[in-house]
Amino acid sequence: MNPSVPPPESYPHHMTSANGIRFHYVRKGDGPALFLLHGFPESWYSWRNQLDGLCGGFTVIAPDLRGYGLTDKPRGGYDIPNLAKDVRELARVLGHERIFLAGHDWGGALAWAVAGLYPEFVRKLAVLNCPHPLVMRKFLIRPRQMRKSWYMFFFQLPGLPERLIERDIRGWTARTFKGYAHRREVFTPEVLGHLANELSRPGTIRGGVNWYRAAFRSIANPPRIGPVRAPSLMLWGTRDPALGKEMADPHLYKGLADDYRVEWNENSGHWLQQEEPAWVNDRLQAWFGSGN
C-alpha cells in the first residue's frame, strides 16, 4: 500500500449530535479549531492530506456533512441556512465558539454562507474552487457556465440521478473524479476505491443530490447572506472544467467580502486539495498562521 495514502480507518473517527441529527467527523491535532467542509460527491476523506498536513498547529475537524457518509441523511434540511446552522451547532457541541473555516465545492458555498450568516463565528475563511453563492447565481444563467453545470439541472429529476449513479457507483466515481481533474494520476485505484466506498453508504447519493434540489428551490427566493467580514482567501485550480475561473475575479466580491484575495494554481482541476495537497497546505498554513 502507498504510505502516502493512509487508509480511512487509520484516522480518529467520532460521532456526535448537533442541530437534530447525528454527525460523523474526523479530528486530528491540537490548537484552535479549523473546520474543513467537503463538496459533492465527497466526504471527510477528500481532506485527508490536510488533516495530516495542518494538524501540527490546529485541531483540524473534517465532518461528513448532512446527507453524506456516516452522518444522518434526513429527507429535508438541505437549505443553505440550515446547513450553515449544522456547522455552527456542530462546532458549539465540540466546544468551539469561534473557528477557522475552509470549504471546497459545495463545502465552499456553505463556508461562504456560514461566514456571512455568523460573522462573529468565523475568524478567517478559505474557499477552494467555489464562488460566493450570489456570484454563482449570476453566472449560472450564462450559456457558457450553464453548459458546464448541466448536471445541476439533471439532478432536479426525481429519483433518476440516484438510480443511474448507483447502478455503477465505482465506475461513476472514477469517471467523475478523473473527468474533473487535471492531475488524474492522484486518483489511484486505491484512492478511488476509498472514495467509492464512502459514496456506497446507503442514502449517500440521494443526500448529496438533495443539496442541488434544495438550491434550485431557493433560486426565486435566495437566502439573505450578509457581507463576509472575516478575511477571505480564494484558492482556485484554473484547469477546473466545471467552474470558470472568472467567478473568482476580485471585482465581483466588492460588497460581498470586506477583505478578499485570490491565489491561482495552474496545475489543478476541480479537486484542488486532492490534486495539489502540498500547495494547498502551504497556502492554508500561511493564511491561517499560528491560529492567533
Question: Could you describe the 3D structure shown?
Answer:
This protein is globular. Strand 5, helix 3 and strand 6 (122-128) form a beta-alpha-beta unit. It has one domain (8-288): Rossmann fold. Helix 1 (48-54) crosses helix 12 (277-288). It is an alpha/beta fold. It has helices at 48-54, 80-93, 106-117, 133-140, 143-148, 150-154, 160-167, 169-179, 189-199, 204-217, 272-275, 277-288; strands at 13-18, 21-28, 33-37, 59-63, 99-104, 122-128, 232-237, 260-265. The chain is 38% helix and 17% strand. It contains twelve helices and eight strands.
Instruction: State the end-to-end distance.
Output: 38 Å
**Structural class computed from helices and strand pairing:** alpha/beta
CATH architecture: 3-Layer(aba) Sandwich
CATH topology grouping: Rossmann fold
The largest sheet, given as strand count, sense and whether it forms a barrel, is: 8 strands, mixed
Summarize the amount of helix as a percent range: 25-40%
Number of domains: 1
Low-confidence region ranges: none
Q: What is the CATH top level name? A: Alpha Beta
Total strand count, please? 8
Number of helices: 12
Q: If you average the pLDDT, what whole number results?
A: 93
CATH homolog superfamily: Alpha/Beta hydrolase fold, catalytic domain
